[in-house]
Design goal:
It is a single chain. By secondary structure, this protein is α/β, with parallel strands linked by helices. 46% of the residues lie in helices and 14% in strands. It contains 10 helices and 7 strands. The longest helix has 29 residues. It is globular. Bound molecules: nicotinamide-adenine-dinucleotide.
Length: 258
């Protein structure tokens, strides 16, 4: 028997990148998945999922998504709040409009959908997995409003775990580091990115959507029945240490001897 046989899940932002990888993994584990995205192109090539074209930030998004789930599966066991928008500017360049947009997509959408999904999750004693970010744990030079939103996602994860554990609902988050997706692919191989980001990771490598999908599949499964309120960083060790690679030491030594 597969790990999630017969379960019913919703994955938001499922058309590409991590959401797509998570959807494919849940389906491979025997799960029925409602894949939601604002863009139809990515969804239409997803095999084995129910699909819904829906903007997660729309006023009626929670009602529409949960109604589609009820219609397809009658029940909801797993909610994966993956939808997000990256690449935000630093705080000093963040206008009110930019702030609102990043908070809307990254935090408000998951907050509202999670809240409205609670009755279905109480019934199934289901669980939520939120996709946060290593930047929500550690901070970063840029990404002002994104950092605020992802730290908020982590806060909501812990609050909900505490409030709804007694009703049998688990709530966890995955905090990816740098994962290869259509949104990040361009910069991953530049010398600047390798020196500034990859060299700061103890494992010295970026991840693939499958790395995040494995963590989600674990947290969503019965194997994690005692795990709630946790944030699992899938980041090559980036947020667990102040890491200085041999290359960085050599570069620093070179500046001292010039
Ligand atoms: N890729 C990384 O390195 C990385 C690192 C840390 C955290 N994350 C987080 O993982 C999640 C997925 O990231 P990704 O890199 O796969 O992103 P991506 O940009 O590649 O894909 C996001 C998907 O969400 C959809 N989407 C965007 N706005 C939407 C909306 N309003 N309503 C419905 N769908 C919408 C897009 O159409 C797209 O299919 C995000 O929450 C992101 O913040 C990603």
């Amino acid at each position: 028997m597969k790990g999630l046989e017969g379960r019913a899940a919703i994955v938001t932002g499922a058309g590409q990148g991590l959401g797509r990888g998570i959807t494919e993994r849940l389906i491979a584990e025997g799960c029925r998945v409602l894949a939601v995205d604002v863009r139809p192109d990515g969804l239409s090539s997803l095999r084995g999922a129910e699909i819904l074209v829906q903007d997660s930030t729309a006023d009626d998004a929670p009602a529409t998504i949960l109604e589609a789930c009820r219609k397809s599966f009658t029940t909801l066991d797993i909610l994966v709040n993956n939808v997000g928008l990256g690449n935000a500017p630093a705080l000093h360049d963040t206008t009110d409009e930019i702030y609102d947009r990043y908070l809307d997509v990254n935090l408000r959408a998951m907050f509202r959908l999670s809240r409205d999904a609670l009755p279905m999750l109480f019934e199934s004693r289901g669980n939520i997995v939120n996709i946060a970010s290593s930047i929500g744990l550690s901070g970063y030079m840029g990404f002002g409003a994104y950092t605020a939103a992802k730290a908020g996602v982590i806060g909501v994860t812990r609050q909900m775990a505490s409030a709804y554990g007694p009703r049998g609902v688990r709530v966890n988050a995955v905090a990816p580091g740098v994962i290869r997706t259509p949104g990040t692919e361009d910069r991953l191989h530049t010398a600047r990115f390798k020196a500034l980001v990859v060299a700061t990771m103890p494992l010295g490598m970026t991840g693939e959507p499958e790395d995040v999908a494995s963590a989600v599949a674990f947290l969503a499964s019965q194997d994690a029945r005692l795990v709630t309120g946790q944030v699992l960083a899938v980041d090559g060790g980036q947020t667990s240490s102040v890491f200085v690679s041999e290359e960085m030491i050599a570069a620093w030594v070179a500046t001292q001897t010039e």
